[in-house]
């Protein structure tokens, strides 16, 4: 079974995807990390970020791998072509380079094929921008997770402080988030938009645990069984989505 979680940068997708996967016993796939890894390789090789053919060749010929620790559904490490890039893909430089790389049709073609191969091998929570629309249009659960740009910038700054990578300047981060929102939603290939049958969840001012519970409920409903999530098993709020205010409701489209 696939749970697709799409949405803009900093909406809390990673935190939510990991927690939902843990509760339901699913694996996690962070497709943004794959685009970031290709962007990192392109910068290392001096490939022009508007050279679709060269970027596509790079994406096709460098294996992207995720390293798991036993019992943890969320991978801890990511590598491309055998090189560990876990921290290197979280810098401000990659934040800037990844937009044009992810807009390259041949990169998307190569990575979507890989994502489908990985996801079809088991039960996955897959997070990205086009998961419910392009990668897994047949996903059993589709969520479009959003939050205000300001709240997303605050979360990203906190995350960067915790990870000691990336910018910790709020205005710079907010400007980057707005730039990426525009870029991701206006690009010709697989623009960021909710699938017609996606449930929209706005995490602005909500406890992240409640968003997680909403998605688990959707998964249970899709499975037609009651097993899985119990409110008393709530995880700690993650760096991308610390509690800010009481919960709102699920907003089906
Ligand atoms: O989720 P993230 O910020 O790590 O994603 C990095 C970039 O990759 C972002 O600019 C959007 C792009 N992306 C995409 O185009 N499609 C996906 N499925 C995942 C990410």
Fraction in helix: 40-55%
**Pattern of helices and strands:** EHEHHEEEHHEHEHHEHE
**Percent of residues in β-strands:** 5-15%
Q: How is the main sheet built?
A: 6 strands, mixed
What does this structure look like?
This protein is an alpha/beta fold and 253 residues long. It has helices spanning 13-24, 31-45, 52-61, 92-103, 105-119, 131-135, 149-163, 170-186, 208-223; strands at 2-6, 27-30, 64-67, 77-80, 83-84, 124-128, 141-146, 199-202, 251-252. The two termini are 22 Å apart. A hairpin with a 2-residue loop joins strand 4 (77-80) and strand 5. Helix 1 packs across helix 9, helix 2 packs across helix 4 and helix 3 runs parallel beside helix 5. Bound molecules: 2'-deoxycytidine-5'-monophosphate (DC).
Name its key features.
253 residues, alpha/beta, 9 helices, globular, disordered C terminus, binds 2'-deoxycytidine-5'-monophosphate
Topology:
Elements lengths: L1 E5 L6 H12 L2 E4 H15 L6 H10 L2 E4 L9 E4 L2 E2 L7 H12 L1 H15 L4 E5 L2 H5 L5 E6 L2 H15 L6 H17 L12 E4 L5 H16 L27 E2 L1
Parallel strand pairs: 1-6, 1-7, 2-6, 7-8
Antiparallel strand pairs: 3-4, 4-5, 8-9
Helix pairs in contact: 1-9, 2-4, 2-5, 3-5, 4-8, 7-8
Bound molecules: 2'-deoxycytidine-5'-monophosphate.
2'-deoxycytidine-5'-monophosphate binds next to helix 2, helix 4 and helix 8.
